[in-house]
Amino acid sequence: MKTDVIKLDADKAGSIDLDDAIFGLEPRADILHRVVRYQLAKRQQGTHKVKTRSETSYSTKKIYRQKGTGGARHGDRNAPIFRKGGVYKGPTPRSHAHDLPKKFRKLGLRHALSAKATAGELIVIENAEVAEGKTKALATAMKALGWKRALVIDGPEVNENFARAARNIEGLDVLPSQGANVYDILRRDTLVLTKAAVEALEARLK
């Protein structure tokens, strides 16, 4: 499929052929959902923790004799039945990550790119470079182009001035091609790829 290439000042800079095997698929919500769940589960901290009866700070002495009191049989006050006792089978630190085959993750990225292309939310620019790392100039250019919530994916390395200028703009994310992922692509309204990013993604996903 063929698409126009523009510059940051909105001038045309020719056109580019996008690989249909990467940008022309019929997007599948089930594949995208599984990959997003995999990403979010992997980054979940899992540091929740409660104290068990062996970790609470009461005495371990039996609270009263076993028989003859007319009350229930008890050991120490750390039992879960008492206030401030230990918690039974509560959460402990663990990883929430689960496996997903590398081929499936690649397929998810293809479907995410295709979803943006199908929805008309994919823009290709010649390059993501600015002369100075000034936020104001880039914010003005973004407003003129109509980008409100955008993800810019560059080639193997992001231009330093562009990254500095974009750092303080709300709703604008910048990633190198190696950092392209399904969650970040879907969470922004507009996906902006440089020509270098298109080449790098096509090489990575073939």
UniProtKB/TrEMBL annotation:
Keywords associated with the record: Ribonucleoprotein, Ribosomal protein, RNA-binding, rRNA-binding
InterPro entries associated with the record: Ribosomal_uL4, Ribosomal_uL4-like, Ribosomal_uL4_dom_sf
Region (Disordered): 64-99
Single GO cellular component term: ribosome
Pfam families hit by this protein: Ribosomal_L4 (PF00573)
Coiled coil: none
Top-level taxon in the UniProt lineage: Bacteria
Keyword RNA-binding: yes
GO molecular function: rRNA binding; structural constituent of ribosome
One GO-annotated biological process of the protein: translation
Assigned protein family: Belongs to the universal ribosomal protein uL4 family.
PANTHER family, alphabetized: 50S RIBOSOMAL PROTEIN L4, LARGE RIBOSOMAL SUBUNIT PROTEIN UL4M
Subunit organization: Part of the 50S ribosomal subunit.
Function: One of the primary rRNA binding proteins, this protein initially binds near the 5'-end of the 23S rRNA. It is important during the early stages of 50S assembly. It makes multiple contacts with different domains of the 23S rRNA in the assembled 50S subunit and ribosome.
Name of the protein this chain belongs to: Large ribosomal subunit protein uL4
Source organism (scientific name): Halovulum marinum
Encoding gene, per UniProt annotation: rplD
